[in-house]
């Protein structure tokens, strides 16, 4: 099942018939989807590899980024790649089991991605605004438990799609085509969609807006003095912040990079989310072929662009990516030579805090 089926089912129809697409559309669709998915799959695999194979990269924040990378990989493979065969073959080619499995993993990846973003947003807020509490709340073991809980809950939540999806045979111009579509009617599907929309899009963005606003207040509107001992009381959180003053310099960069991830999540999902909301109130759904392609490409781009952001804004990830791509024996370097811009953790970095 592909993402555009969501909007089509608002009219209780399927979009499994692709044979009347123009050659121009097929070429552009296949090329762009293949390019974005290819770059995204390689990039997210690199994120997972550099964190799992590099000891000093295994920090709470990076654990959440690994979870996000795994979810994005799921979206690209379960939602992106099937669109290529749909455009080329003109019908569903993965059978009944493929319809259920691909639909399930597509929604699992989308929802786990949203929850992972929420998790690292909360972790950033605690680490920056409550650094004393972060010593026992923002730990590696706790991050792993939270990630396991996120995936367990989203896995159970998405089970419903196994019962809402099915293959159907559709006769078009005397040709029998197989489609992967929803079983339920529009009236049954809309409450499910709006629950999903609220829990995995609206609420995470509202929470992120509030928490990043509080983080900005701490980091940018009320910065630490050059001499941490110069002030004994500077407002909410200052006494705690002095405990982590050695980490103050990288914090704006950390937050800025993770905030970019959140903003892109909001912006790139907006066309699709808006389309479905609008179609919910239209008698006849708006299903322009090129606009649907644009919505899908935005979603795939959201899952593919995060590794690019890490490379552009994090010295640690940039160096780790270079090492992963290089061949031959590597010269040993001390972890302290890296910037701490991405993986701030009170527990993880206290021991070498004076070595920046």
Automatic annotation (TrEMBL):
Q: Does the keyword Glycoprotein apply?
A: yes
Chain positions covered by the region annotation Disordered: 227-250
Q: Which UniProt keywords apply?
A: Cell membrane, Disulfide bond, G-protein coupled receptor, Glycoprotein, Membrane, Receptor, Transducer, Transmembrane, Transmembrane helix
| Localization terms from the record | Cell membrane
What is the membrane topology noted in the UniProt record heading this document? Multi-pass membrane protein
Q: Name one GO cellular component term.
A: plasma membrane
Q: Gene3D superfamilies under this entry? A: Rhodopsin 7-helix transmembrane proteins
One example of the protein's molecular function in GO is: thyrotropin-releasing hormone receptor activity
Where is it predominantly found? membrane
Q: What SUPFAM superfamilies does the annotation carry?
A: Family A G protein-coupled receptor-like
Give the residue spans that cross the bilayer: 27-52, 64-84, 146-164, 199-220, 253-270, 290-313
Pfam families linked to this entry: 7tm_1 (PF00001)
Q: Which residues form the G-protein coupled receptors family 1 profile domain?
A: 43-310
State where composition is biased (Basic and acidic residues): 239-249
State the similarity comment. Answer: Belongs to the G-protein coupled receptor 1 family.
UniProt function note: Receptor for thyrotropin-releasing hormone (TRH). Upon ligand binding, this G-protein-coupled receptor triggers activation of the phosphatidylinositol (IP3)-calcium-protein kinase C (PKC) pathway.
Its name, as the record gives it, is Thyrotropin-releasing hormone receptor
> What species does this protein belong to?
Oryzias latipes (Japanese rice fish)
